[in-house]
Amino acid sequence: xxxxxxxxxxxxxxxxxxxxxxxxxxxxxxxxxxxxxxxxxxxxxxxxxxxxxxxxxxxxxxxxxxxxxxxxxxxxxxxxxxxxxxxxxxxxxxxxxxxxxxxxxxxxxxxxxxxxxxxxxxxxxxxxxxxxxxxxxxxxxxxxxxxxxxxxxxxxxxxxxxxxxxxxxxxxxxxxxxxxxxxxxxxxxxxxxxxxxxxxxxxxxxxxxxxxxxxxxxxxxxxxxxxxxxxxxxxxxxxxxxxxxxxxxxxxxxxxxxxxxxxxxxxxxxxxxxxxxxxxxxxxxxxxxxxxxxxxxxxxxxxxxxxxxxxxxxxxxxxxxxxxxxxxxxxxxxxxxxxxxxxxxxxxxxxxxxxxxxxxxxxxxxxxxxxxxxxxxxxxxxxxxxxxxxxxxxxxxxxxxxxxxxxxxxxxxxxxxxxxxxxxxxxxxxxxxxxxxxxxxxxxxxxxxxxxxxxxxxxxxxxxxxxxxxxxxxxxxxxxxxxxxxxxxxxxxxxxxxxxxxxxxxxxxxxxxxxxxxxxxxxxxxxxxxxx
Length: 532
Known about the structure:
The chain has helices at residues 10-14, 31-42, 48-78, 86-90, 103-108, 115-129, 148-159, 167-189, 200-210, 226-237, 254-266, 279-282, 327-336, 360-369, 434-448, 468-473, 481-484, 496-531; strands spanning 215-219, 245-251, 271-275, 291-296, 338-349, 373-378, 391-397, 412-417, 423-424, 430-431, 463-467. By secondary structure, the chain is of the alpha/beta class. The termini are far apart.
């Protein structure tokens, strides 16, 4: 991949990126949503979980064709003999697309009854020409359940994406569409969708807090790869280069692993993503590696993780996790994989912060006393597709006194209560705004002592830097609400005492009105009885 962009200064890195201008190809706000709705209408009675692979596979094929055709045109202009040399493409990390697999060929046959078979052949040819795609692409478009008319209409719809845009702009747009479709299908699938997709605003919050500028980034349950995409976006938006971070992951669901491979390929991201059906606990593919940044959204409260077969595992440095809940197995697996100065962000169910069942409180106490817990963030409800249960973010650090101008944080944990942040984007789901994400990340950075973030100060109702003694006083429960207290001033800037007095006065007045109404009713009833 091309390299050479200078890295920005820390002060520049802390500044928010300038908003992108709308492109001339119609990619204004809502373009992806309109496209998704149009594509969703075509699926008719096909289940979203099935149609997802149909649509995403075709978007992927269109994306790599756009990249290939742009390079193909450039080589034709330079020297025609080079245009069909696959090495010319592979040297620039562009997939070689055989003639039969090129989008223009499929588009020309979109209305033919054999279009499903043609797509399958194109996918097979693409895998044969690019070993890194082996076993990744869907190849069941010719099955009877798929309506060929629908396939043709979907090809026509996708053909319109990025029409007329220059090469890089077209690739970027297709990447955006792919990402939006992943989220759209996750919403359509509900609980099942949460198994492969973490909402973008949650991932952005974790990435902005951890700032993975360089080094190894790992996700032991990587789903469709959203953590990696946002990490690469962070690096590029702060003056780094694609490839400054080395990406590693593991996924136990084969179908989801294929989605991750395609998602990263769409973005041009090189990664070592492993699959096996035993999962990270029982077959840790990367056991000997340690990582600078770990980002993970493990399945919440999973009970059938096979913990009874791992009672003596080296990873359980703080105590063997209960066989009926994998939350503390995930936390310890992740802590075990941290490099000497590594940090991790983990999404878990709220119960992980306070549970006292099956020895979880003892493990939590051991982790706190070992000073591996860095920050806890309470999240609002309705952020996730898979559950309406509120979740939290755990941030772990191998070394809380790393030097380099940062503050010595040993003996402290930062608590952030973000339950009041975010806004509903529909009836069932909430998202953090860019301002919400910046507020959470800046608070964490200031507490760490990053100069560009300014001085840290506790904010009642929002954040508190608590000592180990304070945490011990709460029996090592890590729920932020126990530490941050109540806000002194609400958004209207009226002090709590004044608001309380006003509410009490209003309540007294309502009680008085109620007494008067009761008295009037009793008099009316008495007069009716007397009249009888």
